[in-house]
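Quick question, first post here. What does this chain look like in 3D?
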Amino acid sequence: MKTITRHILILFALLMGCTAMKAQDTQVQNRPYTDLRPFHFGVMVGTHLQDLEFVGMGPQTITTDDGTVEKIITTDQDKWDAGFTVGVLGELRLGTHFAFRLAPAMYFGTRNIKFMNLTDKTGEGKPVTQNQELKTIYISSAMDLIFSAPRFNNHRPYLMAGVNPMLNLSGSDSDYIKLKRYDVFLEVGLGCDLYLPFFKLRPELKFCYGLTNCLDTDHPKRFKDPSMADRFMYANSVKECRSKIIALTFYFE
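> Answer (accepted):
Ran it through. Tokens below.
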């Protein structure tokens, strides 16, 4: 996580540094009146990294044909998994430095979840492991407040913060872990308006953190059939999880 985040920040800092170097001399302004529009639309594309922060259930008692046994299973998404984002936006001008943005979008990705059974061992003496590909398709509607610095030449940096409710369209009853249909994210970020001759390009880096427990806690009840005891213990290994996203997005306005 730290390595990936550091690389993204370095790339973004280099981009901002390049734009700052170009801005040392006064230039002819492209699209000088574009920020005076009371309302405007645009489109967005980008990439993102997804992660899940799990809170484990701890030791659990499982009933089998041979009686009751205690199992200890850990669950983790051991890396940030990449996805892509597409959407549109509408932005309302609130003043010289402030704007409100509504940005409906779709987030596509796949999380790789690893379960490690610390009680049962393989023939080599290692813990038994199971894996799950947790596909996610989110429909989001981010509502952000943007604070922009004064424009200099064809560049204008800004900070943003807001909330982003999301609807999860994916998930299967046969999965070990299943997420709820709804989640809400707090998001903060920074970006820079680049005024090009024919449009405005806005690269933005933001961090999103889920405010709710996104785990479907009723899902393990579907595996209480004794013949599905092995699935139940994996589905019941987590009592809470929160979603995290790092998104690099390009807005075209």
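The radius of gyration is 23 Å.
The helical segments are 2-22, 229-235.
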